[in-house]
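Quick illustration for those who missed Monday's session on complexes.
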Amino acid sequence: MRWFWWTLFTLCGVCGVAHADPPSRVHRGRNVVVARPSASVGWPNHGSLDNARHLDASGTVRILPGRVLQWGTDELVGLLERTAIRMKRPAQQPLTVGDLSARAGGVISRHRSHQSGRDADIAFFARTENSRGDSRPAPPTDYVVFDRAGRSLDGTLHFDTARNWALVQTLLTDPRVRVERLFVSTTLRALLLQHARATHSSSRLVTLAANTLVQPARVSPHDNHFHLRIACPSGDRQCHTGVWLPPPPPRRRRVSPSRTHVRPATTHGYAPSRPATDR
Ligand SMILES: [Zn+2]
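Prediction with zinc ion bound:
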């Protein structure tokens, strides 16, 4: 579909054609300018973002305090907006979102990925519970770590398995965007899948969730938030699936001990360790 939007933009320049989803529209006076479609370039851990769309706070979307990186592809922002609307009733609170990407993508602090507009962090739904067992949704003010039993470390909050499963279900059944990964810790993943089976979710959905919910390797286990990564938008030819791996350094020729003194060691500029391969 990307070619369609691009052609539409190129041919019309300024027009008022209605559309069902992105790209976004900018109102200038009586005209509606169709913004150029976004493009995810490269990999999540080695990429950039063109014509980014901003995720705005609203009645259904809440941005975590202090987070200012809410730029993503049209598809990612559209998915988050639709999900937040669909979750409003079951969650009884807005969808709380942390970082997406910088406006032009690229490296940002605290993240190894989030570079190409396809990643977003989402706070878990949590609830409080009093001694009588009454439960209430607890809007998060920051990411909260939950242990294998679904309790916060200070014991005041519970991982709201039902609402978090509803969120997973909503993301995975979106009609327009395919979720590539939902990073979450192995223990919380187990709670979610256990709940899904206990509540008789379809076996197809449970299988899809089991394949999508993953604890990433060699980074934070994601026991305090979901990390959402969407698949490359169809037609986004510069978007690459998977993660970028740097080319291995060339093999050093074995030098006989008698000659080592004439060839000083050098790294030739190669990094001593491999960069991130996940998240
Ligand atoms: Zn993340």
